[in-house]
């Protein structure tokens, strides 16, 4: 049975406005105008404004590349940059530096690079291409995007002392009755994914207007509109280097290193937004 949430948690839903992060109409119109410039027009504008000289672009090839970049709509630029690990990977308990660097450099960074290539390919798709080709790339785009996003949440909630405190404990207790009840279900959800793939995500659910733990079979599963607060990677690449197939010991290590301050910060940010 769900407990009674704190008063400010109830305010989440009252202020819930999914569109409040959108840019202004003026910004949108400005971006559209830029996109509507042709590559040739952009080169002319750049030359007349002395942009190439100002930014040190000396060759025509570089200038053309810049013009191509500026005239390509953002959706097709593929310009995502991997973020560095937010902690010293030699300092975590029970998760080796070798494991963490391999995970970050191969799986996470690989997803970011893959997403960039996919979006650039979508931008080059012929207008008469069969729909299934677009659909295949759109499916891969979703998978790579969620892999990038979930890995950033995952690494972002590691590097702490594993001791829960702050806003998040109030929200979890309000939803589950106790931290122990929540942790038991979160761990069991992780074990249900052992030996395969997936994620366990404690999210803010705007429909229920509360925090809730969700099971994600792969990168394409996620709660519609949910905001991740605590993310645990259950793909074998997240633990096999240190633990082989022993997912239980990995989950123990994960809990020892949770950065609860960051989880609470996400919860506070969610309250401000919603
Ligand atoms: Fe991963």
Question: Can you summarize this structure?
Answer:
This protein has 274 residues and is mostly helical. The chain is built from 12 helices and 3 strands; from the N terminus they run αααααααααβββααα.
List the defining traits of the structure above.
2 domains, 3-stranded antiparallel sheet, 12 helices, binds fe (ii) ion, 274 residues, mainly alpha
Question: What would you say this structure looks like, in words?
Answer:
The chain is mainly α and 274 residues long. It has 2 domains: 27-72, no CATH class; 89-274, minor pseudopilin epsh fold, CATH 3.55.40.20. Helices cover 55% and strands 8% of the residues. It is built from 12 helices and 3 strands. The protein has helices at 7-14, 25-36, 39-49, 51-54, 60-71, 97-123, 131-156, 167-176, 179-192, 240-243, 247-256, 260-273; strands at residues 199-205, 210-216, 227-233. It has a 3-stranded antiparallel beta sheet with strand order 2-1-3. Strand 1 and strand 2 form a beta hairpin. The longest helix is centred in the middle third of the chain and has 27 residues, at 97-123. Fe (ii) ion (FE2) binds at residues 103, 107, 151, 233, 235, 237-238.
């Amino acid at each position: 049975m769900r407990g009674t949430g704190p008063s400010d948690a109830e305010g989440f839903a009252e202020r819930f406005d999914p569109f409040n992060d959108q840019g202004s109409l003026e910004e949108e119109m400005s971006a559209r105008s830029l996109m509507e410039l042709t590559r040739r027009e952009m080169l002319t504008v750049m030359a007349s404004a002395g942009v190439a000289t100002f930014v040190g672009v000396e060759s025509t090839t570089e200038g053309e590349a810049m013009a191509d970049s500026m005239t390509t709509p953002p959706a097709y630029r593929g310009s995502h940059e991997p973020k560095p690990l937010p902690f010293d990977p030699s300092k975590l308990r029970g998760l080796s530096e070798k494991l963490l660097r391999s995970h970050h450099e191969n799986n996470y960074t690989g997803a970011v690079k893959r997403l960039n290539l996919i979006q650039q390919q979508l931008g080059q798709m012929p207008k008469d291409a069969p729909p299934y080709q677009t659909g295949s790339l759109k499916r891969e785009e979703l998978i790579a995007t969620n892999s990038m996003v979930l890995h950033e949440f995952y690494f972002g909630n590691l590097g702490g002392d594993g001791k829960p405190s702050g806003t998040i404990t109030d929200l979890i207790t309000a939803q589950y009755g106790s931290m122990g009840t929540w942790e038991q279900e979160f761990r069991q959800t992780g074990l249900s994914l052992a030996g395969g793939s997936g994620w366990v995500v404690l999210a803010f659910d705007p429909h229920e207007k509360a925090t809730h733990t969700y099971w994600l079979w792969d990168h394409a599963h996620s709660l519609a509109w949910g905001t991740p607060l605590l993310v645990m990677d259950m793909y074998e690449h997240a633990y096999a280097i240190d633990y082989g197939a022993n997912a239980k010991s990995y989950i123990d290590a994960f809990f020892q290193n949770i950065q609860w301050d960051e989880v609470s910060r996400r919860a506070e940010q969610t309250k401000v937004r919603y």
